[in-house]
Write a structure and sequence with these properties.
There is one protein chain. This protein starts with a helix and ends in a 7-residue tail after the last strand. The radius of gyration is 23 Å and the shape is globular. It contains 6 helices and 10 strands; from the N terminus they run H-H-H-H-H-E-E-E-E-E-E-E-H-E-E-E. The longest helix has 28 residues. 33% of the residues lie in helices and 22% in strands. The protein is an alpha+beta fold.
């Protein structure tokens, strides 16, 4: 497959069903041929196209996984997409109408907001050895290589591969570098992961969004719930808003309990059901 043929396929991204796996293989083969010929411009163009196909492939798979209620697997695909966008946007600027990329980027951010994951494990490491993935050189402070991180060489993204490290510690954080590190409990008898997170809001959305590229949007609202809804919560109990403070020192001083509401706008629904309020569930003290 030639670059011109691949570009024709690229123009159909988000419009028709494509065989992403086979097309990605063709793109990689073509990219290697241009790189072997020393054509940096076209091999970089093919790297950009490859990133776009990877994003669409992972978004389609994430949507399928959410429909199947495989939430953590879908979360990992969304993280892959976020990383791919991070590098793609350094080399390719797209507008709202190109290749459905704006739609996917916005949908990924919205879906990440809806997930119940709030804490992540984060490793602190001491890097002992790392190398350049382009030239393979082991890098030292006084002996760097000529390749720059994030640039494209021969159709490949330049990164640093850590080949030796020492683990110094693990902490729980709210904004990790690596969002894959979601903490789960384990069944001591089977050693299997136990998922106790509440995905009700995501399920509600997915019951209304029928197809992968169907337009939808999210509006996040902050509202106050009346204290009468929490009349069984004692002053010294944890505040229902989830701040971590006790009720007396937090929302009890306010006109109501702080609550996050999600409003979904799904364009395929009838007009009278387009705007749907969905309250974030709050645990009440019994």
């Amino acid at each position: 497959m030639t670059l011109s043929e691949i570009e024709l396929k690229t123009n159909r991204l988000g419009l028709v069903t494509l065989d992403y796996e086979n097309l990605l293989n063709e793109i990689i083969i073509c990219k290697k041929e241009y790189a072997a010929a020393g054509n940096e411009i076209d091999s970089k163009r093919l790297w950009i196209i490859q990133q776009m196909f990877e994003i669409h492939k992972d978004y389609n798979l994430a949507f399928k996984l959410l429909k199947e209620k495989k939430y953590y697997d879908a979360w990992c695909k969304l993280e892959n997409i976020e990383i791919d966008f991070h590098y793609l946007k350094k080399h390719f600027s797209f507008d709202k109408s190109q290749y459905k990329l704006y739609f996917i980027e916005k949908s990924v951010r919205n879906l990440q907001v809806l997930f119940p994951y709030r804490l992540f494990s984060s490793m602190e490491i001491l890097e002992k050895e790392k190398r350049c993935n382009i030239c393979g050189k082991i890098l030292k402070f006084r002996s760097p290589c000529e390749h720059k991180i994030g640039e494209i060489y021969g159709g490949e993204l330049c990164i640093r591969e850590i080949t030796d490290f020492e683990l110094l510690g693990i902490a729980l954080v709210e904004n990790p570098v690596n969002k894959y590190t979601v903490p789960f409990t384990t069944n001591p008898e089977t050693n299997e992961r136990v998922d106790n997170y509440d995905y009700g809001i995501i399920d509600y959305l997915m019951s209304n969004v029928k197809t992968t590229y169907e337009p939808w949007d999210l509006i996040v609202l902050n509202k106050l719930l009346p204290h009468s809804d929490f009349n069984q919560t004692k002053e010294e109990d944890a505040c229902p808003c989830g701040s971590g403070e006790n009720y007396k020192e937090c929302c009890l001083k306010q006109d109501g309990v702080k609550s996050v509401h999600f409003r979904f706008v799904v364009k395929q629904l009838p007009k009278n059901t387009q705007n749907t309020n969905m309250k974030k569930k709050k645990k009440r003290k019994k």
